[in-house]
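Q: What structure does this chain adopt?
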Amino acid sequence: MFVKSLRKSKAFEREFARFQRNFGAVVRDLRIKANLSRAELARRAKFSIGTLTKIEQGRGNPLLRKMENLATALSLRLSRIFEMAQNRADNGD
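A:
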C-alpha cells in the first residue's frame, strides 16, 4: 500500500512540475505579447521580479492569490491562463 501511494505521489510531483513549466511559459508568452518587461508585470502583479522570473522558468510555486494577481495584471481571467497552460501540455510542450 505504501509503495502504491508513493508511486501516486511521484506521479503527482511530475504532473505538478509539468503544470508549473507550462503555466510559466504561458505567463512569459503573454507578457511578451503584451510588450511588458518583467519589472512592469511584477509591479502590476504586486510582487518581486525574482518571483516572476521563477514562475516564468517553471520553478516558482505561486499561491493562488499571486496567480490571480498575474491574471489581473495581464487583463485575463485566471481560468483562461490555466486553459492555455493545459492546451500547451496537451500539445506536448
